[in-house]
Fold these 2 entries.
Entry 1:
Amino acid sequence: MRMEQGQQTDGPIIAGFSGGGFKVDDGVYRALLITPLRADGWAPPPIAALGVDHVAPLLALDPPPEFLLLGTGPSLVRPPLPFVRAIEALGFGIEAMDSRAAARAWAVLRGEGRWIAGALYPLD
């Protein structure tokens, strides 16, 4: 599947889904950490074990991201409350949704020039 983009923006854009992963520039990532500056593969823990340390590179973005976009896999799963509280205590917002919706939201928000970070669990 290919996603249509509105405005073009600098940095990596999730262009679609391919081979069970997220298509970004010339690569396909099964799970993804993404910022306006770069996209990296990710080996996430089970969602119930997710901790701030698992997304630390995203939170170190300078300037800090407006919020963390969390794609929780093939369906929406509420992230662990301690994780949410820890992210919020650091001054970041968090938006959780299924990973396909998160990928689409990334494209729209970055097309608007929003400075965000994303952690996307695998699609399956």
Entry 2:
Amino acid sequence: MTTSSADTMPPARADSSLAPVAPGDRIFNLDMLRGWAILGILAVNAMAFAWPIAVEFATGARPFAMDMANTTGDWVTTVFFQDKFRTLFTMLFGVSIFLVGGARDDEARNALLRRRLLWLGLFGLIHGLAFWYGDILLHYAYCGALMLLMRAWPARRLLWIGGGVTALWSVLTVAGALLGPVVMAAVGPEFATKAAASGPMATPAEVMAIVEQVRGGYGAALLQNLQAWVMVQGFSLFLIPASVPLMMIGLGLFKSGYLEGRAPAWLYGLMTLIGAANLALLGYAEGMVVTGGALPVEGLATAAAGCATLITLGYVSLLILMTRFGLKPLTAVLVPVGQMAFTNYLTQTLIMASLFYMPWGPLWYGTMGPGALWGVVAAVWLSQLIWSPLWLSRFRMGPLEWLWRCLSYGRWVPLLRTAA
């Protein structure tokens, strides 16, 4: 793979995520991958919109029956989506830090990037406090501030350090998953029982009580959202050592040419196979867990899930191969969604919040299990795949990308497309 430095990037790419949507200003693969990521994120977030936060953290808190539909829906989410799409979106955010900020000695772009991150953090605060506790924008804003220090590093350093730290977390997760049962057996069943009982665990009845409170009015919903937001934001601070290395990997892959499709085809093929192998192992292990089958190694499902980054890179490599070898029309449908990723991410919240717990919606909160939620997710996917190109046929960028750009630049920028 070739290596490009921060100083050799074309000026037209300086503000890829906010620039007018024109062929010369966009990078097809980045928009395509960003669209893939933003759609996949919704599949994971759906349960967090539909149920109290306790359901996310404890399977014993689930008030719904794990019948065939719910078991299958949960399996699909866990195997194909959980931690894969957030990982990809985090990687791509690292790329955007460089595309906006450029070299560290460019003070004008440095100032622009700082303002951009400041406004992103404010958007995140509003999003998280008023609409949905699972906001990731505030986390990206302060992680992005740390990435300011690394964006000028060459690809090799970014990949070695970012990849090394990410690999370390994966190794620790795998080791903990595989050795955990051995340790628990060594300390005895009484200790294991006490440890399991010491953690916070809501009962299904307690979950349904929260559901009734939320369905009772926006004030109760806002209070529950605030409590969950405080918990999630505290947890997000511990994710900084995981998120920043992923941003470094994404930027390293971009600077090396990998994300733009300039690496050898065999390398994309190899990464696709590695990702597919881990995906197959995860699918098998999770299938055994949900069906009560015997696993060859206890903790195998958790260990396989700990290598989710490999599956993410497998997805990336497969999509790039499809783009390179005659299937570009298929991957191109994701591009408009990616060009409006900021708008689509927040629109997903508006739609899901309106459907599940906002007072003007049907109040589906606490009524759908993982199986039924897939119907809602598919409908939102379809709407965003349709509306994104329609909007961009008239306008130069998404409405919230436009607002973000105006605030970052401190001036009014054109939104309507002009006739050629």
